[in-house]
Amino acid sequence: MNIVKDKKSQHIVDYIKEFARKNSLFVMAYGTGCGAIEIPPTMTSRYDAERFGIRGAATPRQADVLLITGYLAVKTLKRVIRVYEQMQDPKYIIAFGSCTINGGMYFDSYNTINALDRYVPVDVYINGCMPRPEAVIEGFVALQEKIQRGDADNGKKYQENIDWYRENQMKVIKNWNMPDYNW
Amino acid sequence: MEDIIYKILGAILTIITAFVVGITYGGLTRKVIARVQNRVGPKFYQNFFDVLKLLSKRTAINHGVMQHFAPMFIFTSAVTVLMFIPILHDGLFFSNFSFHGDLIFLLYIMPFGPLGMALGAGQTGNPNSAIGVTRGLSQMVGFEIPFVLSLVALMVQFETTSVTEIVNIQVESGVWMIFSNPFAFLAALFAMFGMFRYAPFDIVGAPAELASGPASEFGGKYLAIMMSSSSIFTFAKLVLYVNLFFGGAENLVELLIKTFILYMVPVVYGLVSPRYRTEQSITYFWKWPLALGVIGMIWAII
């Protein structure tokens, strides 16, 4: 048991874990916004994101990264929260486009949310309307660096501040009929 | 006593070899697919990262007991199949637990993993899982028949049910089984297309249609176990085919060359194929492969 308690050996284990996490990102692309049109060129032969170990995941259960492409209506926000809570720790969110930062061109719309960060924790923002595939890959690389530094575990942050997030979510989603989040 | 130690060491060594080779083949397949699509593709050892990452994830999904058991079932079945196949002939470590009659035993034990997986995937309650399971089991009914026919043809032709003896017969006579019974080989080859589930027979996982089918509610460690067990199972099936039809292998290099060439057949065929519907897939297996299996049987009797 000494080797487990020893701080240096734990550091090595963490390094290996984070190296593996960094090099293998399964992406759940939540493509309801207009930015989703930039995902196919990112994944296919021109900008081939699979070089960095990024590949699509079929279901939230298998995914690590939730890629939210653009504006979110209140109705789709509900689905995003559901998907995010179904994903397994450690999980990351990449917010894509200006709309997720401050509402973008839909800032005064009656049914879109303005700041995504108030409802789910975001790891990396990619700004632009809309960002090109190079920018998307740069965002992924920024996320990889963050993972390697070890400060990208936002699932824990969500877990700790669940009351604040729930309050904000329930403020905009009137018909709240979702199952409880079980860790 | 020494015999038992060699057996145990050999078993451990075999599992490690199967895991490493199977995972590497998976990575090479991704690389080949990427090159055909004019991409650079991932590193060929990418799948090791994937398995490592999935193992390091925290998993908190609970749908019931069978859901937790299903990956264990499929892993057990993969290792069991591997344990009863002689990897190299007259090797000290790699002959494993093969015995007289292991061919019949293999025929029985090979569908065990998919059946266990079906139970587990059924309990998750995901509709995609249920559809994937029904498709997978229907397809298994399709390709098992030509597979069994071709194996029975071999058994009848050489009056043995032991994989080791079939390898020995091929080595002694110097004629591989693909030449002494080509029809049985063709039937088994078509059955292999169904087993490896590449296009056009990828109706179980069905990317972009079923959301990875039976595996859709399994994440984290369970997915890692399923990935590694499917790699081991792939390697086991490839070695079985090499043993039965390509005269076995003297050393690991020969084995790797033979298995890799054999593995590339369904992969490359899948690259240029669209996906069949379920009933198309089953009728496909029940037409030409079945006929070839029957011809192989007649060939064996004459």
Structure commentary:
The complex is a heterodimer of chains A (183) and B (302). With 183 residues, chain A is α/β, with parallel strands linked by helices. Chain A has one domain: Rossmann fold. Chain A contains eight helices and five strands; from the N terminus they run ααβαββαβαβααα. Chain A has helices spanning 2-5, 7-23, 39-43, 74-86, 99-102, 133-149, 154-160, 162-172, and strands at 25-30, 54-56, 65-69, 92-96, 124-126. Chain A has a five-stranded parallel sheet, sandwiched between helices. In chain A, strand 1, helix 3 (39-43) and strand 2 form a beta-alpha-beta unit. In chain A, helix 2 packs antiparallel against helix 6 (133-149). Chain A starts with a helix and ends in an 11-residue tail after the last helix. The mean pLDDT of chain A is 85. By secondary structure, chain B is mostly helical. Chain B has one domain. Chain B is 71% helix and 0% strand. Chain B contains 13 helices and no strands. The N and C termini of chain B lie far apart (45 Å). The relative contact order of chain B is 0.17. At the A-B interface, helix 2 of A face helix 2 of B.
Secondary structure: elements and pairs:
The complex is a heterodimer of chains A (183) and B (302).
Chain A: H1 2-5, H2 7-23, E1 25-30, H3 39-43, E2 54-56, E3 65-69, H4 74-86, E4 92-96, H5 99-102, E5 124-126, H6 133-149, H7 154-160, H8 162-172
Parallel strand pairs in A: 1-2, 1-3, 3-4, 4-5
Helix pairs in contact in A: 2-6
Chain B: H1 2-36, H2 46-55, H3 65-83, H4 102-109, H5 112-123, H6 127-158, H7 163-173, H8 177-180, H9 182-196, H10 221-245, H11 252-271, H12 278-285, H13 288-301
Helix pairs in contact in B: 1-10, 1-11, 2-10, 3-5, 3-10, 5-6, 6-9, 6-12, 6-13, 7-10, 9-13, 10-11
Count of discrete domains of chain A = 1
Biggest beta-sheet profile of chain A: 5 strands, parallel
- Give the largest interface pair and sizes: A-B, 26 and 32 residues
Low-confidence stretches of chain B: none
Quote the beta fraction of chain A: 5-15%
Q: What's the average pLDDT of chain A?
A: 85
Distance between the termini of chain B: 45 Å
